[in-house]
Design a protein that fits this description.
Bound molecules: adenosine-5'-diphosphate
Strand order of the largest sheet: 3-2-1-4-5
Radius of gyration: 15 Å
CATH topology: Rossmann fold
Strand content: 15-25%
Helix content: 25-40%
Number of helices: 5
Distance between the termini: 38 Å
CATH architecture: 3-Layer(aba) Sandwich
Number of strands: 5
Structural class: alpha/beta
CATH class: Alpha Beta
Length: 150
């Protein structure tokens, strides 16, 4: 049976830290679906229509990676794609606190679902989408944190 994982997130923007989690996840899974969360209540800085092609371009030529936008529960997205795994990255204890609760809820919503955490590679541990947004907003150069050109 194919091992399919969903890597869900806001990816606002998708960073080299996220790319690293996907590339390492490919050693564990046959296929990774990157689900770009599109929440009508949460204001995005980098629009979905801008981000999807950038992420697709990052993994161009790799047919093990698929990039989709979603506005649904992650647990439902997983069911839709026949994914039994959720892939998430952990940078620090703050991530852990949040990820711990969300993984319990996801398993409650979809009992087939197992969340797999990869600890961030040290060279990407400081990369944070919220900070990148702030820096970009005020005209700072964020190119070194992103795996594509904006
Ligand atoms: P969300 O809004 O769902 O938290 P994010 O786009 O911020 O989405 O993050 C998606 C996933 O990637 C989360 O599991 C997060 O902990 C992880 N992540 C974020 N930044 C990094 C990084 N620099 N290195 C490794 N994992 C990361």
């Amino acid at each position: 049976m194919e091992r399919i994982a969903i890597f869900p997130g806001s990816f606002d923007p998708f960073t080299k830290g996220h790319e690293d989690i996907v590339l390492r996840g490919l050693h564990l899974f046959d296929k990774i679906i990157i689900g770009v969360g599109y929440n009508s209540k949460k204001q995005r800085y980098f629009q979905i229509d801008t981000m999807l092609p950038k992420i697709r371009q990052t993994f161009a030529g790799n047919d093990q990676v698929e990039v989709v936008a979603f506005d649904d529960l992650t647990a439902s997205l997983a069911r839709q794609y026949g994914a039994r795994y959720l892939l998430r990255g952990l940078r620090n204890t703050t991530d852990f606190e949040y990820e711990n609760s969300i993984s319990q809820i996801n398993r409650h919503l979809n009992t087939e679902l197992e969340t797999i955490f990869l600890i961030t590679s040290p060279q990407y541990a400081h990369i944070n989408s919220s900070i990148i947004k702030e820096v970009h907003k005020y005209g700072g150069d964020v190119a070194e944190f992103l795996p594509y050109k904006l």
